[in-house]
Amino acid sequence: METTPVADALARAPKALLHDHLDGGLRPATIVELAAEIGHGLPASDAAGLGEWFRGSADSGSLERYLETFVHTTAVMQRRDHLVRVARECALDLAADGVVYAEVRYAPEQHLEAGLDLDQVVLAVQEGFAEGVEEAAAQGNTIRVGTLLTAMRHAARSQEIAELAVRHRDEGVVGFDIAGAEAGYPPSRHLAAFEYLHRENMHVTIHAGEAFGLPSIWEAVQVCGTDRLGHGVRIMDDVGLDGEKVRLGRLAAWVRDKRIPLEMCPSSNVQTGAAASIAEHPITALKDLRFRITLNTDNRLMSATSMTREMELLVREAGWSLADLRWVTINALKSAFIPFDERLALIEGVVKPGYAVLGV
Ligand SMILES: O=c1[nH]cnc2c1ncn2[C@H]1C[C@H](O)[C@@H](CO)O1
Ligand SMILES: [Zn+2]
């Protein structure tokens, strides 16, 4: 993309990110290096080729096939020092992209193959984030990173992961999530974990309404009591036209009325077939209907993207303005899993002044 005044403004705009997978954001060069160290075979031997392989393979039109690419990232995230490095680089890369607040998620149960236990995995990742945040600050980029612990929805460890999240809540873990193939694995499968988290006053988000439709969103909201929806793009199935007038079904109305945040990830959705194109992605219609939408990367490696790029795509292909981007940034901070006063401080002290400099 050529450098234009708008592209320059987007690069400088303060960003808030609620939905980014640690194992979906590795630097290709790091994967090449770590894979060589542990003797893991890769589908491409150089960083550029590997980056291209991830993006191309993830462009499959199917969430299941998209998820298959993660075997090559989780493979190199098994040793303590490797987890520290990947987390450190994640914080540095997000900060360099202008992200001032990020919630980064991963599934600890996928990092036990070299003998670490769940707590050791969490501590290694927290150490890496702390290092990255400190280095970024030294480079002049201030970022705050919160961690979400994910349980894989096809597996049966959600209660354990929920307890792990609660155990590490004072060390930077701010919430819990479920991810993985959605069809056939409804959120209610993990109801006991969600009930436990509610009793512990712990925040919850659920991947729902990405590869499966309204029943998945309904369960996440009404049965599991989620605070936010990961993607939630299929809520559009409950939005119709009554002549010229937009009509919300009961679930869509509930989601909008309750201001339930939607963690939307345009490029990822185009790759998995959840949306036809950036121009037609429901994020724009939902913005116009004033749902509590947020803009996210999902997997920077698989989508070869960044927050700046997602913003550029919406501006170029869906007619978004800087004011729209400021709005979703504030929405994200209103929806963040850190305390209210800290969210407010970021909105008033960082985001609003940052956009004011850009004339918004
Ligand atoms: O967009 C997604 N939908 C469902 N699951 C996902 C998505 N992106 C990543 N994951 C899975 C694969 C990762 O290994 C796991 C934990 O980050 O979460
Ligand atoms: Zn995701």
Automatic annotation (TrEMBL):
<feature type="site" description="Important for catalytic activity">
    <location>
        <position position="231"/>
    </location>
</feature>
<feature type="binding site">
    <location>
        <position position="21"/>
    </location>
    <ligand>
        <name>substrate</name>
    </ligand>
</feature>
<dbReference type="Pfam" id="PF00962">
    <property type="entry name" value="A_deaminase"/>
</dbReference>
<feature type="binding site">
    <location>
        <position position="207"/>
    </location>
    <ligand>
        <name>Zn(2+)</name>
    </ligand>
</feature>
<feature type="domain" description="Adenosine deaminase">
    <location>
        <begin position="14"/>
        <end position="352"/>
    </location>
</feature>
<feature type="binding site">
    <location>
        <position position="298"/>
    </location>
    <ligand>
        <name>Zn(2+)</name>
    </ligand>
</feature>
<keyword id="KW-0862">Zinc</keyword>
<dbReference type="InterPro" id="IPR001365">
    <property type="entry name" value="A_deaminase_dom"/>
</dbReference>
<dbReference type="InterPro" id="IPR032466">
    <property type="entry name" value="Metal_Hydrolase"/>
</dbReference>
<feature type="binding site">
    <location>
        <position position="23"/>
    </location>
    <ligand>
        <name>substrate</name>
    </ligand>
</feature>
<dbReference type="GO" id="GO:0016787">
    <property type="term" value="F:hydrolase activity"/>
</dbReference>
<feature type="binding site">
    <location>
        <position position="21"/>
    </location>
    <ligand>
        <name>Zn(2+)</name>
    </ligand>
</feature>
<dbReference type="InterPro" id="IPR028893">
    <property type="entry name" value="A_deaminase"/>
</dbReference>
<keyword id="KW-0546">Nucleotide metabolism</keyword>
<comment type="similarity">
    <text>Belongs to the metallo-dependent hydrolases superfamily. Adenosine and AMP deaminases family. Adenosine deaminase subfamily.</text>
</comment>
<feature type="binding site">
    <location>
        <position position="19"/>
    </location>
    <ligand>
        <name>Zn(2+)</name>
    </ligand>
</feature>
<dbReference type="InterPro" id="IPR006330">
    <property type="entry name" value="Ado/ade_deaminase"/>
</dbReference>
<protein>
    <recommendedName>
        <fullName>Adenosine deaminase</fullName>
        <ecNumber>3.5.4.4</ecNumber>
    </recommendedName>
</protein>
<feature type="active site" description="Proton donor">
    <location>
        <position position="210"/>
    </location>
</feature>
<keyword id="KW-0378">Hydrolase</keyword>
<keyword id="KW-0479">Metal-binding</keyword>
<comment type="function">
    <text>Catalyzes the hydrolytic deamination of adenosine and 2-deoxyadenosine.</text>
</comment>
<feature type="binding site">
    <location>
        <position position="180"/>
    </location>
    <ligand>
        <name>substrate</name>
    </ligand>
</feature>
